[in-house]
Every structure is written in C-alpha cells, then in structure tokens.
Design goal:
The chain has five helices and no strands. It is mainly alpha-helical.
C-alpha cells in the first residue's frame, strides 16, 4: 500500500466512524428533537454551500478551500494551517 492510499484509507475510516458514532450521541442528547437537529444542520450546511458557490463564482480556480483561504488571509495561510494541523511533513517534506 502506498502512502497516499494509507492516508486516504485512514481518513475515510476516521470520517465514517466519526459520523456513525456522533449520530448516536446526538440522538441521545437531542431526544425527541433529533429530527429537528438534522433540519437545523441541513440549513447551516446550505448556507455554507451557498458561500462556497458565491466565492467560486467570484474567483474561478481549481484550488478549492485552499484558494478561498489564500484570498481571505494571504499567501502564507497554507503554511500556517499545515503547521496548526501538524501535517506539514505529510503534505510537503521539509528540506
């Protein structure tokens, strides 16, 4: 297995397990309002998607969230976020 394959598999497992585990906890906390919590989450997600659409129309690029962060916070944003996430050596090894 290659490094990118291992990273992709690990990421997929963490996201999948997180979704299933958190859904149960949210159901326990929300009780009978559990369906309403999904509706509220869908509304928040809709606003977020609308924001991405407007930004991508204003600044067409294949950069995704990285491009949006650079437009908002400057060209060194990717380096700062990589350090904050602790993944600088995975994304770009230091030389």
């Amino acid at each position: 297995m290659t490094l990118p394959g291992a990273v992709a598999m690990g990421t997929g497992v963490m996201i999948g397990a997180g979704i299933f585990a958190l859904t149960g906890q949210i159901a326990e906390l929300a009780g009978p309002l559990f369906p309403l919590s999904f509706v509220v989450g869908a509304i928040v997600t809709g606003f977020s998607a609308y924001t991405y659409i407007k930004i991508s129309n204003a600044f067409p690029s294949a950069g995704g969230i990285g491009m949006i962060l650079k437009k908002a916070y400057g060209p060194t944003t990717d380096q700062r976020s990589q350090r904050a996430l602790g993944c600088r050596t995975v994304i770009r090894p230091r030389v």
